[in-house]
Amino acid sequence: MKILTLGEVLLRLTPPAGTRLADAESLSVRFGGSESNVAAALSGFGDRAVHLTALPQGEIGQAAENSLRRYGVDTRFILKREGRMGAYFYEPGASLRAGRVIYDRARSVFAETPASAYALSEALEDVAHVHVSGITPALGPHAAELTQRVLMAAKAQGCTTSFDLNYRADLWTRTAAREAFEALFPYVDLCIASSDGLDLLGIQNGGSDLAACRNGAEELKARYGFRWAALTVRESISASENRLSGVLLGETFTTSPAFSVEILDRVGGGDAFAAGLIHALLHGFGEAISFAAACNALKHTLYGDCMCVPEEEVFAVLRGDTRLRR
Question: What mean pLDDT, rounded, does the chain reach?
């Protein structure tokens, strides 16, 4: 199944475990981005994932494209233009110390590329589903226009669509985000949010209480007319230990098991959840929300932004199978 994702790919710079950025003498280099993380995970499940973005010309942009190709993502529609690569610095948390992210993405080549530069009709050919997030319209008028054009075109040709709220306070205000999101919602079938991120839309947060999460999902779906509303649920024991689950409201309300995880790297967990839910819904899995929540938990055990694993590894998590495989 062909799925299109849209969004900026970032250079990720991370100090060694247990080292603060202010004290770091070395930084590991990876690439990631919310929507490209979704593409990588979908590719691992066997879907044909196509990512749409713009990268800088030269070695850094090529390295970013190579990272997507390594995961099996179709990069044919990626633009190469003069400009800079967006980046972020990630300091992992541990125990009582919270992690932190510092962005350096202003005026990136993706943010500066006009929507008219992309070959949207070609990229959308034979696509069954389109996924975007609330990060992209936060990056400026070009990226906001591109998001709207892609969603409108997708709906016009009968694709299903998904939108991850992914509000980033460092990028724009809550008022601007809500206004932009609500303008896009008429073109969205599946809305994904964290259970503690609903207040952006004036809906009471659910936290880790499933009854409150159900109320939040019901209000989200009723207010905006989504076909599905899904929430990730996180109970934080410490920066190193979480309990993760999810809820999904479609024709019925379903919940996932709660997974206790010792965290190696929490970046990209929500993206793995989104990919798992998209894959499960498109392929008619009976317990779609459980598959999605297991993806979220599994990603927390892997370094880097991306989770690219076959379906069977997710099903092993659902079975509780942690035995050594030989």
Answer: 95
